[in-house]
Amino acid sequence: MSIDLLLKSICNSADLSEVPIRFGEDKILSEMTPRYEYHEPLTSSAAKAFFILNYYFSNRRMPNQDFEADKAVILKQTLKIAKCFSEICCVKGLANETLNCLGIVQMINFGLWNDSNPLLVLTNEAFDFKYIHEVMFTKQRLPKILNELRNNFCLYKKTQILLDRTRTAIRIELEKVSGTTGSQIFNKNWENQNTMQALHVLVVGIKSGKLYCHDRVVCDKENFEGFVSLFSR
Question: Cross-referenced Pfam families, in alphabetical order (predicted)?
Fold first, then answer.
């Protein structure tokens, strides 16, 4: 399932059914231009949530203060729903859907579409770099703002991945390449967010595309060594 279809499913969740539709807001929605088309009636909470999320990810201003206030509620609920969706998809072994749900979680945290330049999370300035790892390893002289920020990113490389003797778990070893261990996520869109950086480890069958297990590793150590159960779903 694609990102836009997952977003529509999330917006149709009961948790968002209490988002108010005030008098005349269906007309406002009809004048908005979201990235993805929406062919359902514009008189529902689901429609409003979908449009507000589209504008939020596109870094566009809301039509009025009521929409801005509703955005805070929608983001909070959508984050919870997307995490629940990722767990459900994981249990069902749906690798692509799990990745897309985790992508939506990141989109909510960062306030960007999944295909946007990730550096926009840190600054609105335009740079030639498209990916964070380019900033980490470039030999070019960096602008001051990027030079200060890149030390806060933790990058790890896998040193070993082995199937254990019982063939029920995978042993994973990760070694930190660069960055400050224990750095918190920096997000210009959310204030007072104290979430530590983490890695998502997914074990997927190359041919089948089936997801066998998923684990989240907090980046609080120089090296990580542990087992991911193949039956953790």
Answer: Sec63
